[in-house]
Amino acid sequence: MKSIYKLVYWTYRYSSGLWYWAARRFTPAGLCVLCGWMVAGAVGVDIENTVVYQSFALLFAFLVFAAGSSLFFRTKFSATRSLPRFGTAGQPMQYEVHVKNLSSKPQVGLTVLEDLADPRPDFNEWLAFKLAENRYIRPFRVSERRERNPFRRATVRSANLPPIPAQGEGSVAVELLPFRRGTLRLTGVTVACPDPLGLFRSFSRVSLPQTVLILPKRYPLPAIALPGQQRLQEGGVALAANIGCSEEFVSLRDYRQGDPLRHIHWRSWARTGKPIVKEFEDEFFVRHALILDTFTDDPHSEVLEEAVSVAASFACTVLTQESLLDLLFVGNKSYCFTAGRGLGTADQMLEILASAQNCGDKPFSALEHLVLEHIGVVTGCICVL
Length: 385
Hints:
By secondary structure, the chain is an alpha+beta fold. Among the domains are: 73-117 and 153-215, Immunoglobulin-like; 284-384, von Willebrand factor, type A domain (Rossmann fold).
């Protein structure tokens, strides 16, 4: 049975690689000629009763000429990207690519293609996914591939460069559509030039490895009135603002041994002739917990992806209120991240959620233990199960 799985896997791997190569090498007109050539070859087998074989020979000559012309393209380029810090799953992301012509001749009709890291899994990862979901990964239509293939991270549209003079530079806007959260790796930029017939592209590759963090998608939520009352938080605003000891000022009093020197009120000392210090009181404020259930054996679970998206939506909504928010979940270990009131931002919490992984080797009681450790300091919880 395993040998059959390996045959299916390598068939998938080579067929997807061949389709990727053809889609990049051939222009849309070239793909039409290629399909017409294959149809003519199938229909024109009977050369005695049909003349379709003549179009087969003509189209084949076009393809050979186009592919042969690509061998004479030897121009070199350099490139840089202006990538944003973050992207969001399911939302197009635009950025600039700057290309410099390193040759002594002007270049026209160029196209910029992005090189993404190979998303194809190894055999063990592919087999685990297939057995878990009981389905194959096949090259269906684009919309179906996006839904069925969890390894496909993003797609990038090709962009046409303006004419670039000799030793000159040009820039173009590139649109990237990420499908899944996490780290998206770009390996390089390919500058493509079509042959004189406009059927086949010649490539000049520029190695340009970069990464961009894709945040989980979010859903719009209404204003949420979370229950809970204000409690005394140890450290007061010092915990919330993370700036020294910045509790709320209450009054002045005489210096007592052990008081920090930074609390001395120098004007009062100068006026009274004895050391006076400022007295502070810890603040009371609301603190909530956002509990995320990550316990699933499938690392590509769509249910887990939706749970992370819901948690991200709550994180962005709750942090607009005057409260602290503790994110609690279990991955390879237990995590607790606190944000709000200057201690952390929504972007930082989204970064953590973008990297959250499933937990399949620990019992659910690990999350229960983590929650019970923090239950004494929070006034309410949001559970995403």
